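Troubleshooting: if your tokenizer reports a length mismatch, compare your output against this known-good record of 243 residues.
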Amino acid sequence: MKYVLIWCREGSLIVQIDGNDFTLEKHEVITITSGQIHFIKESREVEGYILEFTYDFFCKDDKDVELIFENGLFCHFDENQVIPVSNFEAVTEQLKLINQELNEEPYQYLTSVHSRIELILVEINRSKINRGDEIWKPDALLLKFLELVRAGFNSTYTLAQYAEKLKTTEQKLNDQAKTHTGKTAQMVVYGLIASEAKRLLIYESLSVKEIAFQLGFKDPFYFSNFFKKHTGVSPKVYRDQIG
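Known-good structure output:
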């Protein structure tokens, strides 16, 4: 699962994420959560960086997990934000150094990259707080739950099984989900499955039947009904509209 950060250093660009257009101008950033459908739709004399990292690479402990989701950076439930960064020199410098580390691979370069990503996220969080955003610090449990769901779409785990894997209770998962998303934990699961179905319909050359089986549905007809219930259109119509 990849997390993506797009940094506009000069010029401007339009990024489409889950069907919505976002315009980035100079010294602005946008973050994209794993599973979100995205592409650069248009660019005008743009310079900048696209930073991608995986959950497994960055999240060594609960502190790391909470940092990548703090203030909704990578946990925005389809509410992506364009964020102007006040200390833009620091962000540009860290991205430049990450690129250098990855190209040259000096001793302990991955440790260095991890630390530099931390510094970038701190600067983005500071910019959000300085402009008046409320501080939001989610519990690592919710974020581990989201990643567990994303990592096993074909597992067809029940909520009780997710709770068992996370050494918690269904009630605790529901409490966390309602606090941070306004939905039950089960509805969060359904939403993530629907998002993954959209991604597969757009980016993979798979039939609706194959996608249904890949997502753990034994009956393609049931999958089509599920998809329509959560998106408003059938899988075929959705693919035709996007295509």
